Structure formats: C-alpha cells, structure tokens
Amino acid sequence: MAEIPFLTETDRDRVGAAVHSAESASAGEIVTIVTPQSDSYAEVALAWSALASFTALAVLAIGGDFYLGLIDRVTGNWQTAWTPRHVFELAAFVAMVKFIAMWLLQLWRPLRLFLVPSSIKSARVRARAMTCFKVGAERRTHGRTGVLIFLSLAEHRAEIVADEAIASQVAPEVWGDAMAEMVALIRQGKVADGMIAAVTRVGAVLAEHFPRAENDVNEMPDRLIEV
User: Fold this and answer.
1) For residue range 120-176, what is the model confidence (pLDDT) as tens digits?
2) At what angle do helices 84-105 and 42-62 cross, to 10 degrees?
3) Has residue 2 been placed in a domain?
4) Considering its fold, how many domains does the chain have in total?
C-alpha cells in the first residue's frame, strides 16, 4: 500500500468517520481510494522522445549543408566533402542524443504529466478506478450497493463508480456535484476535506434511493485506502 505523504492519521480518521456517518443513513457501502498517480505514461514519454529524435533528423535533412558546414567550422575540419558513412553516423548520433535527452527530461514528473494529452489522462484514471472498483467494491455487498470514490492526485482527476443496483437507479451525472466539490477543495490542498465532501454528497444520494434497513450491517471497511 502506498502512503500519501501529506495525509495525516487525523485526515485518514476524518475520512473514515465521514464514510461511517454517510453509511449510517443508507444501505449503500462507500469505498474511498486515493492514489498518487494512476499510470506511469511510459509509452507517451517514448512517443515524445521518438518525435524529438525524428524532428532532429528532419531538421538535419532539410538544412544539411548548413549544419555540416557549421560542424566543419566548429571542429576546424578542412574536409570538403562528407561521405555517406559520415553523414549516417552523424544522423544516428544526433537522433540518439535527442531521444535520450527527451527521455531524461521527462523523468521530471510535472513535465511528463504536462506532455500527456488530457484525454489519455482521463482514460487512464478511469481505467485505474474501474480496476480498483472490480477488486475492492464490485459485487462485494449483499445488495450490490457499493460505491467507489476514487481520487488520482497527479492527474487532478476523480471518479465515482457505482455497483449494479445503484447504477440502475442513479444516473452518472448525479455524481457530478460530488466530484466538482471534491476537486475544488483538493486544488486548495485540502485532500481530506475534498474526500469528506464527496462522501457526504454520495451518502445523501444513497440515503434517498437506498434507505438503511434495521438489519443492515457494515459489509466493507470505512477507512481511506491508499494505493
């Protein structure tokens, strides 16, 4: 289990208490998960590195005479003609340097995330949320009333995924207010407050559609899960 550095034990306890309170009025079971990042985006970094490499080759091909002459002047080379072998070696060296340099630059996570298209980040966060839901919440309650509140910090994205019984009665758009309130607070650095706000909103929806029965039991943990 990964531990989110800026979440204190008090924060974790507050989120757990909010889940317990929200579930006390409904038959729903709320699972909260927070992760530092949903994906490494390694293939995106490779694509940008390859693009930088190909771009360098294209520039070298278009302005070949200029760059070859510049190299001759800088190195003091009096060679009047470059052989195909020398040109190929130079092109391979430039492509390799550009590829490695771009890859190394993207080891700085903020730059790597900045270069990832928004649609890809959204899709990866959604996919990670669905995986966590299938493992931790789907069909794990007697009435199929599990709800996952998933937060991916690096991408600044959240997902709410509901089990069969809830999804059949509550449209996905209903969770929009909960996600908007959560993200707004998290952007202020209030991760725990954001999760609590979402839990409260989700709890209100569950209480309306799935009121708690007298014999209802708590089937899933209330604690905040960090992955």
Assistant:
1) 999 999 999 999 888 766 555 566 778 899 999 889 888 998 887 787 888 778 888
2) 150
3) no
4) 2
Q: Which residue has the tokens 């052989």?
A: 83
pLDDT, residue 17, reads: 93
Instruction: Note whether 24 and 125 are same-domain residues.
Output: yes
Contacts (Cβ under 8 Å, ≥6 apart) of 135: none
Of 102, 94, 89, give the one whose Cα is nearest residue 50. 102
Q: Are residues 91 and 167 in the same domain?
A: no
Claim to verify: residue 145 and residue 34 sit in the same structural domain: yes
- DSSP state string for 107-145: TSHHHHHHHS-HHHHHHHHHHHHHHHHHHHTTT-STTS-
Burial 35-58 (b: 16+ CB within 10 A, else e): bebbbebeebbeebbeebbeebee
CA-CA distance, 16 to 196, in Å (whole number)? 9
Print the domain residue range for 59: 42-114
- Give residue 194's identity as a one-letter amino acid code: G
pTM exceeding 0.85: no
Domain final residue, candidates 69, 93, 114? 114
DSSP H helical ranges for the chain: 9-23, 42-62, 64-75, 84-105, 109-115, 118-136, 164-167, 176-187, 191-209
- Dig out the tokens for 154 from the structure: 């690096």
